Amino acid sequence: MESLQNDLLLRAALGQKTERTPVWMMRQAGRILAEYRAVRQKAGSFIQLATTPELAAEVTIQPVDLLGVDAAIIFSDILVVPEAMGLPYEMEEKRGPIFPKTVHTLQDVAQLRVADPEADLGYVLEAIKITKRELNGRVPLIGFAGAPFTIFCYMTEGKGSKTFSVAKKALYTDPEFSHQLLQKITDSTIAYLKAQIAAGANLVQIFDSWAGILSPDQYYEFSLPYIRQICDAIAQTPPNVAVPQTPVTVFAKGAFFARHEIGQLNCAVVGLDWNMDIAESRALIPSKTLQGNLDPCVLYGSYKQIEAEVKKMLNAFGPERHIANLGHGVYPDTDPDKVRCFIDAVKAYSV
Amino acid sequence: MESLQNDLLLRAALGQKTERTPVWMMRQAGRILAEYRAVRQKAGSFIQLATTPELAAEVTIQPVDLLGVDAAIIFSDILVVPEAMGLPYEMEEKRGPIFPKTVHTLQDVAQLRVADPEADLGYVLEAIKITKRELNGRVPLIGFAGAPFTIFCYMTEGKGSKTFSVAKKALYTDPEFSHQLLQKITDSTIAYLKAQIAAGANLVQIFDSWAGILSPDQYYEFSLPYIRQICDAIAQTPPNVAVPQTPVTVFAKGAFFARHEIGQLNCAVVGLDWNMDIAESRALIPSKTLQGNLDPCVLYGSYKQIEAEVKKMLNAFGPERHIANLGHGVYPDTDPDKVRCFIDAVKAYSV
What we know:
The first copy, chain A, is of the alpha/beta class. Chain A has a single domain, classed as Alpha-Beta Barrel (TIM Barrel). The first copy, chain A, is built from 16 helices and nine strands. Chain A has helices at 8-13, 34-43, 46-50, 53-67, 80-85, 106-111, 117-120, 122-135, 148-157, 165-173, 175-199, 216-236, 259-262, 278-284, 303-317, 336-349, and strands at residues 72-73, 90-92, 96-98, 141-146, 203-208, 248-252, 269-271, 289-294, 322-326. The two termini of chain A are 27 Å apart. The A-B interface holds A 162-163, 165, 168-169, 171-173, 212, 214-216, 218, 254, 256-257, 274-277, 295-298, 300-302, 305, 327-328, 331, 333 and B 162-163, 165, 168-169, 171-173, 212, 214-216, 218, 254, 256-257, 274-277, 295-298, 300-302, 305, 327-328, 331, 333.
């Protein structure tokens, strides 16, 4: 097994005791860092940056050096999967992702391919390999993908939305189409995450960013079963010396109603957003490590406030089975010194 | 006491037995109806329509005639309150509301006034009076206002947002400013809702549309106490023959974590969104009437699906202490025939 100088994240994920609570942040490789913005400008565009392995690796490692986090997360986007299936996206400044073509019929689904990670997503796998080499065992590397339902939202709606009513309309009006598309996304995602693990990812996280727009019934029909398939497929990957059992984290933002059910999945870690009460979540998910869940807006507060909120969070989670994180990606206008205060406070107060 | 031909809504709100479950929809007076769009075009703009009492009354009554709902809700906008406090807004097609000026300092707060409903919001009160006259007792009329925190979001952020991080930043960095502004909004809202009741509103609803972006701690500090003030102030209004005790509905979208606490307020009805499990919500809020909570996207389904989902909802709520509604405003591209199917199904299956 690969020897890591800092394996706190993996040990906490697997439920083992750790000397202190590990900490990282969603979107830590991003606009909060001037050093990121410099590389982003050099690359020319977000997509150029994400598809150039050397640059993606560089920004992936920045927060390890600059912020002192206990894990790197590969710099990429959940929308590389639809692109690899044959549905390219564009990234517009301020407006976010746009899909010029969207998917609406069984024929549209038939025209998509199951992503072949080596052929279609080689640039991410290459970025993982470079990152692993350059990290040189300092901290673990996290891989990730979107949950099939969240990817489905973008492939049908074509852009971000408050309600994703086009996507949800498809679930009600054409469940056959919806399930076929979700299955194709799931098959692509399983292949992609397995390839990330083979390339060196030490843990993989599934982001169900739009879980919270579904009713519980729809969540259990259209989202959870596909996440379950992914968790089961990764758990079944035969462990070997080079690639031991890889922990999976499921983060379903807004799916407070499904916490108990998510806790039954074949995953090691469940992510919480900042709306979810910690004690209640522990009771609903007794057997998993929990990740989260500070409100990202706490980092707008004073150093004293940040420290107080971190202490409160650590006390609520307790010293075991917890990976400290925000309850959402860090907001781009956050002061990096406040971010460092958050990270340092977790390290100082969790011993 | 005013005699109403159909008082199902009020009796259900007060926890009395009704022959069937009453039904209405948030945003029922709006873009789903061709008849609304015609009046809207005649008015020239959304704000012109909202500030012209005869036209506002006309579109308020349309869904009673055209859809058969058990209540009218006055056509207006929650943002008339900041405007009455001295902070005007504009409504941009597709982008939504924009405040050219926003509020950031104690001095900014000092420059705002507590709204004087007669002087500043007379057009809404006039629209209520015209509506009451034209309804002529057919169904009750619902008045409404935004919850102070939701109004605070717009006054500080200046526009809609997915995260309202400017608004939330103020809560963390300047609680004194935040509480002063929230109190001024609350005082304005109490005066406004009392004036709506005096003008003829039979029930008033408080919309906390952005409740779901707050952590539980912040919700209990910055939102719930101000809603409580409003509920208490309306409950303390001395009942008289002309104006009996007016039921209050609190709808805090996304505040699943606060259901028990909201259920302790001095209100008659608690609104649920479609993420909230009905049985769990009944257990958390045992002593109130509940309102909701069909996913608005169900109305994109077939007639058969809509009927099946309505039956499921009615069974889950049971025949008492329920006001049927969607879990959010009806989406503008919904087919009016599907809306009628929803309303007719509640009427048919709740007897």
